[in-house]
Design brief:
With 627 residues, the protein is α+β, with helices and mostly antiparallel strands. Helices cover 40% and strands 13% of the residues. It is built from 24 helices and 17 strands. The longest helix is centred in the C-terminal third of the chain and has 25 residues. The protein is globular, with a radius of gyration of 24 Å. The two termini are 27 Å apart.
Length: 627
């Protein structure tokens, strides 16, 4: 795994030095505490880690943030204690891990969305953290846990509240909204560092904060870095990022720098993305626009056997394998043109659209306004009135919803509105179903996880609409993290400015119901980039649809998929029935639910094939218990 970018965090003590010896064989870089003992070990490219120091205080920013050593050292000098680091960090923009070493204590955290995560375990008698779970698992001799692998069949990345669980036995994930504190003796504890904002701000009042945060997020990735690349799908999310990046380059004009955009073409002639992308590109004449022909761009599910070698780029299973050949093509096309950082629009839908559960809150807070909106939307979408009223009348708690979800894992999936006349669900979330090919033991393992969560888990926000947005942001962040692990290995960092902490905070402070307006598409984002994105580009109020591409890709690659599930690792582990999944693949028209389940199952299978260790209990030669 020599191409992986990773770091580990060690406590400042003699036992921390003993733990460092276990990690050192994989490490190429070391940064010490004030004492001279190792603080950070790992492998990373130049500029990926910035450290500021003042006396015995150290602050490290790891990731994409334009802060300088001098500025970070000045911040370190203003630290009163280790808990003061968040106040100091409020001026930092980008996507990064934030770490501090003060008076022998260590504090570390990732990002709100989970695009930056941390894991921890015990080795050599102390707690050690890292941004990759598999690095810790390799040291302690851990194997993947069967129960968590079963959960990855349900959805991958895992849905809330299972998303803070780690697939490696003996390794724990630090929850996204929490930080990890390790004292000099190597004892660890968790405490919150971020609280979701209350959505009380009117949308017009919130637009300036969104504009400022989004501009800073893009600037953090483009200022002074030379050529950058970005998706230009034709949708509002990626298009806005392209214009923000182009504006930054116009201001700084670094020598030889340019913006390179990428758009892959759908095989569906009815997809409107192409026309809107061309309209946007016409306003960006100084950028290079790369548009591979459909026969020059890999289809989904292509070259699956190339992903089953000895080295797997991700530390957890994930559906990215469906896009594996595309990720390889993306890296080649962009790095050949000089880009080392690629922007994508992930997170835009989660922050600037509303999900149906908001109606449940809206009808209680503003019944007259909600009635008017529901009446218009019901007329437009033909929602059955009785079904909608039952949804809105539900008063079940989050725990009750989780319990009901646990019991319905093998039931019929909720009907698709595109296929069946139905009202949208206003529940706490989508009650995903286990795939039909999952074995009974796998279903029971996931049911047990959900039942345990139902007893203790709390929603991410009091209102269903805000909770759903946060849950989707976390799913998007974890997905981005895996894609970045894939592309960074090939020299191209993948980044999503919408998932930066400041952007999330600014967007989610706006009232949920006001993030969308009947007849207007993503009004908050559109107003935030007005004057940067041309008005004729902002007029789009639709979104591209790619089901045709999925089905054609599935047919093209069916033989390879069938071969993967003939004696699969998942079947040998007792998690799935190969005959059942092959029967589903051979069906004439796989359902949307089957396609979703296929992505998660395929991700699990490829991930296991690339892992030499069998599923089973971890070795206890190094680990001494989980803190």
């Amino acid at each position: 795994m020599s191409g992986d970018v990773w770091f580990a965090v060690l406590p400042d003590g003699e036992r921390g030095m003993a733990a460092a010896r276990h990690l050192r064989p994989w490490a190429t870089e070391t940064i010490p505490h004030h004492s001279g003992r190792p603080w950070l070990l790992g492998s990373w490219p130049p500029g990926h880690v910035t450290v500021g120091a003042a006396g015995d205080r150290r602050i490290a920013v790891i990731g994409r943030c334009p802060v300088t050593v001098a500025a970070l050292s000045e911040c370190a000098g203003r630290l009163r204690d280790i808990g003061d680091v968040e106040r100091i960090a409020q001026s930092l923009h980008g996507s990064f891990h934030l770490l501090a070493s003060v008076d022998g204590s260590v504090r570390a955290r990732g990002s709100v969305s989970g695009a930056r995560r941390l894991f921890h375990t015990r080795m050599a008698g102390v707690s050690v953290a890292a941004d990759r779970a598999d690095r810790l698992a390799a040291v302690i001799g851990s194997a993947p846990g069967e129960q968590l692998l079963a959960a990855h069949l349900l959805a991958s990345p895992l849905p809330y509240p299972l998303d803070d669980l780690c697939v490696w036995q003996g390794v724990q994930a630090v929850p996204s909204f929490d930080c990890l504190l390790i004292d000099a003796d190597g004892r660890a504890r968790i405490q919150p560092w971020w609280t979701p904002p209350e959505p009380h701000r009117a949308w017009r009042e919130g637009v300036p904060a969104v504009r400022s945060a989004l501009t800073a997020a893009v600037d953090a990735r483009t200022a002074g870095v030379g050529t950058v690349s970005a998706d230009l799908s034709g949708g509002l999310d990626s298009t806005s990022l392209c214009f923000l990046a182009a504006r930054q380059q116009e201001r700084t004009r670094p020598t030889g720098a340019k913006l390179v955009t990428l758009r892959w073409q759908s095989i569906d002639p009815e997809n409107g993305d192409a026309a809107w992308a061309a309209r946007a590109a016409a306003h960006l004449p100084d950028s290079e626009h790369v548009t591979p022909a459909p026969d020059q761009w890999p289809s989904w599910y292509s070259a699956l056997t190339a992903l089953t070698g000895d080295a797997v780029p991700t530390d957890e299973p994930g559906p990215w394998v469906r896009d594996g050949a595309r990720m390889t093509a993306l890296c080649r096309l962009m790095t050949d043109r000089g880009s080392r950082s690629h922007l994508m629009g992930g997170g835009g839908d989660e922050l600037f659209s509303t999900f149906p559960p908001y109606l449940h809150d809206y009808v209680r807070r503003h019944p007259l306004a909600a009635y008017s909106r529901i009446r218009r939307q019901r007329a437009a979408h033909n929602w059955p009135l009785g079904q909608l009223l039952r949804q809105l009348a539900d008063r079940g708690t989050f725990g009750q919803w989780l319990s009901a979800w646990a019991e319905s894992l093998t039931g019929a999936p909720p009907p698709s509105q595109a296929l069946v006349r139905s009202a949208p669900s206003t529940a706490w979330g989508v009650g995903l179903r286990m795939p039909t090919w999952a074995n009974r033991e796998a279903v029971e393992a996931v049911r047990d996880l959900l039942r345990k969560a139902a007893a203790t888990a709390e929603p991410l926000a009091a209102e269903r609409g805000q909770h759903t947005a946060l849950a989707c942001v976390r799913t998007g962040g974890r997905g981005l993290r895996q894609l970045d692990q894939v592309t960074s290995r090939n020299g191209l960092a993948l980044t999503a400015p919408y998932l930066d902490d400041q952007v999330i905070g600014a967007a989610l402070a706006i009232r949920v119901a006001e993030r969308s307006t009947p007849g207007r598409y993503k009004p908050v984002l559109a107003e935030a980039v007005r004057g940067i994105v041309p008005d004729d580009v902002l007029r789009r109020n639709t979104k591209g649809e790619y089901s045709t591409d999925f089905h054609v890709s599935l047919r093209r690659n069916l033989p390879a998929l069938l071969e993967l599930f003939d004696g699969s690792r998942l079947a040998r582990a007792g998690l799935i029935d190969d005959d059942a999944i092959r029967a589903s693949l051979l069906g004439v028209h796989p359902t949307p639910e089957a396609l979703r389940s296929l992505g998660s199952t395929l991700g699990n299978e490829i991930w296991l094939r690339a892992r030499p260790a069998p599923i089973g209990p971890p070795s206890t030669t190094i680990t001494e218990g989980v803190p």
